[in-house]
Give the backbone structure.
Amino acid sequence: MSAKTVQLPVKFGTFLGVFTPSVLTILGVMMYLRFGWVLGNLGLPLTLLVLVLASSITFITGLSASAISTNMKVGIGGEYYMISRSLGIQLGGAIGIPLFLCRTFSLTLYAFGLAESIAPFWPAEWGMPPVQLMAAIIILFTTAIAGKSANLSLKMQIPIMIAVGVSLLVLFGGVLTGGVHAPEMTPHYERSAPDGFWFVFAVFFPAVTGFSAGIGMSGDLKDSKKSIPKGTILAIVTGFVVYILILTSLAVTSKVDGAAMAQINPSAPPIWSKIALLGMVLVYPGLWGAILSSAFGSILGGPRVLQALSLDKIAPKFLGRTSKTGQPTIATWVTGGIALLAVALGDLNAVGRWVTIFFLTLYVAINLSAVIEKLVGDVSYRPTIKVHWIISLLGCIGAAIVMFLINPVACIIAVSLELIIYWYLKRKALRGSWGDVRAGLWSSIARFALIKLKEKQTHARNWRPNILLFSSNPSRLKRLTRLASWFNQNKGIVTVCRTFVGDVSDTNVNIDDIQQEMEQELSEQKIVAFPEVHIISDFEAGIMGIIQANGFAGMHSNTVMFGWTHGEERIQRLFRIVRIISQMKRNSILAYIPELEKSSSHNCIDVWWRGMEKNGDMMLVLAHLLSLNTEWRQAKLRLRTIVSTKDEQEPMREKLKMLIADSRMSVETDVILRKDNESVIDLMHQSSKDADIVFLGFALPESKDDTEFAERLDKLVTGFRSAILVRNAESTQGELIE
């Protein structure tokens, strides 16, 4: 009996999976059927303004989407996946459902466009062409193909792209051979756009929204981090350049005037037929192919959003089921069915306005996601494409303003729909009564945040350095506090703890005065930290008690930091404490910083990695956070390791390269070959003699080996200018740079 063959879903690269569907959706129905209409009503200057405004919004949104996509592996659902993973499942769902409707209405839009382009072939004796019926048939055809195979749908795009290229060539050839005249410079809304500029803008805008077609295929890409930004930005730029050439050509051709371009007659051939070489003979294949490709992009993207919503338990479970070829067949036919119902909206222009509004709400959310990710500043947010949050904010504001100007009623309906969906998904509302508005509001927000944080499970993506720093030496405490602040980078919380051994009832220590002094020192150094003063009867037991009691809800310290000490007994005591801290699943940092002063001349940070105790991820994250500070911004970051044979060098280099690729950090790598009988410690000292600070991971020896280990470690750290010993003991061990 033969085993049943399982057909794995086909994965696509940048060209076929992102660029091709995106650029063909951009160069689609609006380009062929509405560019002349836009020019005839606006004139060339305002038409170019419309193009620049629309393209600016989509370009910024494309940059924001690219930044987010390079920081995560984008799964099924494209934009919905990015938004839900950045802003949360409720906001993601509030955007995801309109996104699905947007893709669905886009299918209707392109079906109307293809029907209009076929209408001139309808025999006159049969009466007016049934555009709505033809659109419905086109929807059924594209749905059937997409439900069968995404691979077939995407491969059809190569000949379509060739046909589009040919249609553009014959258009430009017709313009060059037919003479030119000065373009119209003023608008003529009375021709066929009585609602004015923003009405024309609304009809035009879907022409630039095609860049998201490739993002919608995120779950079917081999490498979404690479393909989405590269394919998306290239498609946007390509579309903009082609649009400039087409609009300018239509504006200056002598073969047709503005009044003729402004008229729309479904029974007549498109305006390009009067301009292109050989009429529409070579234009129709490109026109039909581009529109059909755009329709395929919508029918492929929409069901995948529905599938993602199903997988996240927002939509019914059965919508997430896939066929043997990996296609969400049920979701595809549901999408096609809704697109059929949307045919009742009437015509291309009517559907175009609703598609525009829904796309703009999506762009607001994508740009807002990029803004919040940047401002919140999770350590895990390290996109390889960096976009300043102000640029994303401008895209967000621009999309919101344009959405309102296009159609205030539709804008309010769309936003209200999203708020209702959000409220429905949220269910648990923030409740509480308060007296003073400001105090009550902040109190409720703080309480709400802590409760929600307590409910969340710890995940490597959300890791932040919440550092509990101990020192009884005031002079050393200043240097350690500055170092902890550098590590923190305003991402987590630093608690600075001074300890005094004694009896609370007998001691002369004034806790309030010392804490006030500490707060003053922190303020003078411009360090954000929480000072604490503790009197303990026994050093080791007292330290353990403070660590266990520190923090509440989800805000307990995850990293305990000490200054390095000298002397066999003291080092052994430190190891005993670290051993217990590790059992408590908290990280340890031991800092040897005799020469580390505040300076702008730090040039080098070394991270020594062995790959044995899984401390490397935390060392790299801490080194990365250190390098973000003004005092360390010029310092290069080096990841170094030692091998004993030449055969180990190349495999180790590849291993380090993979580690750095996952980290999304700017790091140099160095694999050093140790000579026979050469001391590892001496080699490390010699190699890092120019390093301002060195990061080292360390294991914990058996208790009986503490003395020998203490001597060896003391010799190691004191040979560097400054050294940071790191032990990662959390549940996220080894996952912080993934």
In short: The beta strands are 467-470, 494-501, 530-536, 559-563, 587-592, 604-608, 636-643, 668-673, 693-697, 723-727. Residues 89-118 form the longest helix (30 residues). Residues 14-424 form a domain with the Amino acid/polyamine transporter I fold (CATH 1.20.1740.10).
